[in-house]
Amino acid sequence: MWVGKVQRKTSIKLVLTGLLWLTVQSGLGLGFHVANAREQATTSLPSIAWAELPEQGRVTYLLVLKGGPFPYEKDGVTFGNRERLLPQAQRGYYREYTVPTPGAPNRGVRRLVCGGEAPQPKVCYYTADHYASFRQVVPGN
Question: pLDDT tens digits, residue range 99-118?
Answer without folding.
Answer: 999 999 999 999 999 999 98
